[in-house]
Amino acid sequence: MMKLWCVGALSLASFYYAQSYPVSEISDVLKKNASAVIRNESTILEINKVDEIVYRNSSAITVINKDAVGFSLPKIYYEKGNTVSNVKVTVYDEKGAKIKSYSKSDFTDVAANSQGSFYSDNRMMYLSYTPTSYPYTIEFSYDQKDQNTVFIPDFTPYNDFNISLQKSSFKIINKSGINLRSKTYDSPFGFASVNTSQEDGGKLYTYQNIPAIDNENMVPNPQKILPKVSFSLDQFSLVGKKGNITTWKDFGLWYYNSLLTPVAASTPQIKSEITALNLSGSTEEKVKKIYQYMQGKTRYVFVALGIGGWQPMMPDEVQKKGYGDCKGLTNYMKTLLDEAGIKSYYAIINSNSSPISFDTDFPKMGGNHVILVIPTEKGNIWLENTSQEMAYNHLSFNTTDRNVLAVKPEGIEIMETPSYSSQQNKEKQILNIQLNRDKTITGNGKFTYTGNQYDFNLAYAGLRQTEKNNAIKNAFSTLDFEKIEMSDFKNNRDLATIDFDLNFKAINYSKMVGSSYIFRAVPIYSNASYHQDENRNLPFENRFSFEDEYEIIYQLPAGYIIEEMPDNSTLSSDFGTYRISFEKKDEKLIVKRFIQIKKGLHSKEKYNDYVSFRKKIMNADNSKILISKKS
């Protein structure tokens, strides 16, 4: 949604072109798990006045393999009013010998967004470079003058997995006379730390020798592992709009009056839309009807126009054109609610699979998405306005369990989004399976998903029938399907549930042992791999809690009986609970399976305990049943 202020991983300060960066000088510690090594990066940031800030950026990045080519390409993000100068790029081979140099004229200038059809004032210059061999090093420097002083970037070692850092520095020289606040956030796991010192009239922050974070199983987002330093001026400018940000209230007043109020105007056409809906009933019923109306006539298109890309489109533009980004669609929905006499608030949020919240004690511009909150006597209603398929009053796993900045006329109120329990994040699976003598099974099933598990299955809603069948075949890959068909797919946008039926035939499910057959207890389950790791360096995270409840009814082949079956079992740990039971009933075997996994961030020392717990579950899922011919 919002402007990506990427002075970025490539953008950091003054350079020494005598250096050639031979790869042999990189330690084995920094090479481990790294696709790229940031050899030396620097930003010198001069704040001259409320509407002028100058960045002197430089970086040298050694690219180990093709996975980091995109990360290393020189990029400069800018917008109208910025001045970019002194652009230099030099490429070195593995030994540090110069391959080629480039200047600003070699860069391509494009709109700064990769989300397809959109409108944007934000631009990006980039240098396209195709390597002929690996590793190689790109040295990149440029200066940039910016009139926007609200976006001072955080100083963090890097922002992604499989990147290591040799040295990085960030120096701020504040000549503006405006108070500059800063706050250091230590790594909660002691993974790295920042050093601070005074230098030549400014404050210098540095990181050194920080290994890569491998994207290993269940690792949290790097933002939750790494240290950072945040900065914010008490007075700032955004495309000529000046404001204060000493408190969340001050910032909220500016945001409401400068960004939202100018685009809050309704029109006769919007009034007539609400009149035509013939609203009645409770507030909840009215909001649902308006929301689902809005979903039915709009689609998401990225738009980054006006006041640095942070101001929403006018609601009449969205109403006429039928599209908008999260800002525009949320503003349009808010205007519809205003016309219905229902109060709502524009809410800024960090949308991320690993929850990231705003610091209540350190006000600064932030967030990357916008949703809407409607207070009622029965509790808050939350609306995700960018999806045509999302259920009413349902937030996805990318926006639950964190706080938002709700912008009110009197300032910002920090509010918490819902946190779904394991019972709310549920899968229910009922399978009827016929065991056949040719080792195949034929079956039908009913599946229901709620909560965050609703989110993971919402993608099926936009697929054609053949695509649905192929997608579910890949998702349920623990079975070797000969044929499979999803039917009666229903996205219940009132209750946030997804239901569908499945008809299938799978081969090689059972194995013959003489004239008998053995087969596993649970046909469809998670086949994730879990491995012990005595050298794990990082904590692990279950990002949401959930429950799965299965009932599997096996119909035995005619003339066969159950000769052996596992005992019922229960597993309990700090991470969750698992139960499986077996019941003979006439010519059938009924297997019931229940698993509950708790949400949580755990220390690396507990990882092998978790692996052991999940392996025991997989072993129970794969426990064998023996059927034989009747005597």
UniProtKB/TrEMBL annotation:
<feature type="signal peptide">
    <location>
        <begin position="1"/>
        <end position="18"/>
    </location>
</feature>
<dbReference type="Pfam" id="PF12969">
    <property type="entry name" value="DUF3857"/>
</dbReference>
<feature type="domain" description="DUF3858">
    <location>
        <begin position="533"/>
        <end position="626"/>
    </location>
</feature>
<protein>
    <submittedName>
        <fullName>Domain of Uncharacterized Function with PDB structure</fullName>
    </submittedName>
</protein>
<keyword id="KW-0732">Signal</keyword>
<feature type="domain" description="DUF3857">
    <location>
        <begin position="54"/>
        <end position="210"/>
    </location>
</feature>
<dbReference type="Pfam" id="PF12970">
    <property type="entry name" value="DUF3858"/>
</dbReference>
<dbReference type="InterPro" id="IPR024544">
    <property type="entry name" value="DUF3858"/>
</dbReference>
<dbReference type="InterPro" id="IPR024618">
    <property type="entry name" value="DUF3857"/>
</dbReference>
